[in-house]
Amino acid sequence: MNEPRIAFLLAMAHRAMTDRLHQWLAEEGREALRPAHGYTFRFLAEGGVVTSVELGQRLGVSKQAATKIAAELEEWGYVVRRPHPTDGRARALGLTQRGLDYISHVDGLWDEAEAEWAALIGPERLEETREAIAAYVEHASAKGAPLLRPVW
Amino acid sequence: MNEPRIAFLLAMAHRAMTDRLHQWLAEEGREALRPAHGYTFRFLAEGGVVTSVELGQRLGVSKQAATKIAAELEEWGYVVRRPHPTDGRARALGLTQRGLDYISHVDGLWDEAEAEWAALIGPERLEETREAIAAYVEHASAKGAPLLRPVW
DNA sequence: ATCGTAAAGTAAACCAGGTTGTCCATCTAG
DNA sequence: CTAGATGGACAACCTGGTTTACTTTACGAT
């Protein structure tokens, strides 16, 4: 295969990194959360009052699907649902301590995965790569992509 | 958000590029094929006699799923199934002229998408980015990832 | 004050794209 | 020439989502 398409390489590299992450998590005997769970953590960690509807918008799925994801995370002890402070219809989603611990642990694993890559090409080139990709993503999302969510 | 995770950027960029492709295809009024169909085309275009089982291995799905994909493509006129030249149990998959036309058309669209990116950061930096990603993908697949298929 | 519409949540039916399990026909090694 | 392996087809099922429909609460305009 000559000059693989960069879109293909993006997908393969993403796959390889997340496989690495899941491998480490499996070795530690942790539940395998799906990417959608990870993005939920990031969103909730930003702070503020978050409802299922808002989570769905962020994830790019229906509110029903978002509710289901939040319910799973609640069952596993990562998320709590409290009454919403100002809106009697809504429930406010938040991370438990267990959720916060998980997110910081996974952050460390991402660091490791990036370090493996940096070991191959050097940290400077990796940083340039990050910026090159970020430039395209910003361009594409500015251009009014209706919703720019990752593929999963 | 500080320094987004590169894994996240990879997913977003891949999503943005494929969205762009689908947008163009939709504007041309073509059927929206899924990524799995595209990878099937690439595989069949390599030439040689290909069976459903082999297609499944390449795509990283069961032979039943591969058969279903091939059946769709046959129904739409992109693929033919002929008797296998040497094995009476098997059917040989191949591209029709319509399939070949489709693949070369899509290749042109990928060129356009890459050109948009190159316009942002320059063709040299894009080439460096491609190489940086390719290096990681090769490393990861050499390291014995059981099967390195893209995420879809 | 209250009425009408919008919005959050929940539930149920459905759908797409995969899986596993089973079976038959054919191939191939011994 | 027989026994096990393999390609393919069919069916049942699973998962993660969607759509549709309904209840309850919020809230702006009259």
UniProtKB/TrEMBL annotation, chains A, B:
PROSITE patterns: HTH_MARR_1 (PS01117), HTH_MARR_2 (PS50995). It comes from the Bacteria. Residues 3-138 form the HTH marR-type domain. SMART domains: HTH_MARR (SM00347). Pfam families: MarR_2 (PF12802). Keywords: DNA-binding, Transcription, Transcription regulation. PANTHER family: MARR FAMILY REGULATORY PROTEIN, TRANSCRIPTIONAL REGULATOR, MARR FAMILY. This is MarR family winged helix-turn-helix transcriptional regulator.
